[in-house]
Amino acid sequence: MASLLGFFICCGFLNFPRSSNASNEEDNFELERQTMVRTQIEARGVVDSRVLAAMAKVKRHLFVPQHMRLHAYEDSALPIEKNQTISQPYIVGLMTELAHIKPGDKVLEIGTGSGYQAAILAEIAKEVYSIEIIRDLADQARERLIKLGYKNIEVKHGDGYLGWPQETPYDAILVTAAAPEIPQELVKQLKTGGRMVLPLGDFSQELYVLTKNADGSATKERIIPVRFVPMVKKTEDRNQKTDNGFF
Ligand code: SAH
Predict the structure, then answer these.
(1) Rounded to the nearest 5 degrees, what angle is found at the Cα of 50, between the Cα atoms of 49 and 55?
(2) I need a labelling partner for 69 at 20 to 30 A (CA). Which of 35, 152, 192, 212 fits?
(3) Which fold has domain 20-226?
(4) Three-class SS of residue 105?
(5) Distance (Å) from CA 176 to ligand 1 centroid
(6) What is the pLDDT of residue 14?
(7) pTM of the model
(8) Which ligand 1 atom lies nearest to the CA of residue 141?
(9) Considering only CA atoms, which of 134, 60, 132 is closest in space to residue 91?
């Protein structure tokens, strides 16, 4: 009798409707996401409640390639299409907090990639403009963000060094690829008192916060060493190889 019962339970389990498995998977992701926020982001000192709420809400597993989903809430950057990367969750949280974004703000992001950072920004800011130099990534991210219901994000294929002059000035600018030096055009597009968070350097990089002064200059504060993919110039080879280990 016991073994017969075991047989039925086993079959019942195997025959679980697909939607139920899918919702189990969603529950697991939900749990992993809350753990990610607590152990990777809060534990390292990010305290802005808006940032923590956004990171607890946005489903990172929907921004990584299908075969990477089970790794979506791990403490690392992950490869996405076209040899690019989605940044480590902590770095996304840290950069968002450093930008001091408030509801009502207009924010520019350079390096749309998967669209994940743009989604986090859009949970807090009023409007997000994001530029991606690889056309396929820009198209995919735009489609993904529309499907997820974001109405306050515009994605454009273009060169981030030029910024998005039509929407200037921005309350904050986040650059998610590393430039060798401060892109001056972006400083111009920042509001007085506005903040730009950006990695600077080539192989050895540091994360900086620039605050724009009334005279147009910027005050620079160094935060931590980081490793991002390079912010390329329009004329460079799009197919350059990038290794794992980038933020
Ligand atoms: N913010 C992204 C991750 C960024 S990876 C996310 O949340 O997924 C860096 C991205 O910057 C890559 O997609 C790369 O193609 C893009 N990039 C590099 N140079 C650029 C430039 N000059 N202008 C715009 N995007 C650039």
Answers:
(1) 95
(2) 152
(3) Rossmann fold (3.40.50)
(4) coil
(5) 6
(6) 44
(7) 0.89
(8) 8
(9) 60
